[in-house]
Amino acid sequence: MTKPYTGIWPVAPTPFNPDGSLDLEGMKRVLDCMIDQGVDGICILANFSEQFLISDAERETLTRLCLEHVAGRVPVIVTISHYATPIVVERAQFAKDLGASIVMMMPPYHGALLKGTADQTFEQFRAVGEVGIPIMLQDAPLSGVDLPVPLLVKMAQEIEMLKLFKIECPQAAMKLRVLIEQGGDAIEGPFDGEEAITLLADLDAGCTGTMTSAMIPDLIGPIVRFFLQGNRQAAIDGYAHVLPAINHENRQCGFRSAKAAMMEGGVIKSDFCRHPIAPLHPATRAMLMELLRPLDPVVLRWGK
């Protein structure tokens, strides 16, 4: 079964100046660096973009800047998650008006206790679907909302614009496999996430794309392409080559890793993260670079 959405669609980090203000010129360099690595698409304002540390006014500024700067070179996904359905719909319309290709959203949640029910989740996605822009549903532990496969299949079959599913919950491969089996053609873009820490299992389950960080998309993209072309051994070998770096990112660094690598490679001037996010411990950063340098990724030499 051919799926229309494939490849690597990493999340762009949001660079800040050392004083905490947005580094807008750095943002442009981040996007250019990602495009130069052969990505199939770019996601902005996601959790790995530190969306929870960015004001509404900054969201608008970044959405405009990113879409204008990318200028159609690759598709752009704009993250629009919010607990309030009217705000999500407004964000979707704004992204569509500016030329976004897709919007991504988690189910409605706020904190540990305000979680959308199955009906509320369905209704919010249906409302965004009426805007008329393709939607990627993000099934991530951060929301704490249970999204069973029958609900996802129902949503895919009844909400025309819901086309992509980013599955990064525990046992993602099993959920992807069942979702694809039960959803059929309605699941146009089965993706995984979580920095590709479960990529091989997820590809084996039928996923066609991955949304990683922007740390090493030039090295992860070929793994996806090899697997989809039927060259399993090349995919396995490529994955084994990068797995230590991916593991360190996933388990030790989180979204700080891509910014650290980009600063090391001269893409951005600062890897500052806004409080209350702590900077990487020097030893954690040193090991990240120790694992990355032998891989010779584009990110470490793009700006030099």
From TrEMBL:
SMART domains: DHDPS. GO terms for cellular component: cytosol. Gene3D superfamilies: Aldolase class I (3.20.20.70). The keyword Lyase applies. Keywords: Lyase. CDD domains: DHDPS-like. GO terms for molecular function: 4-hydroxy-tetrahydrodipicolinate synthase activity. The keyword Metal-binding does not apply. Pfam families: DHDPS. Pyruvate binds at M211. Belongs to the DapA family. This is Dihydrodipicolinate synthase family protein. It comes from Donghicola mangrovi.
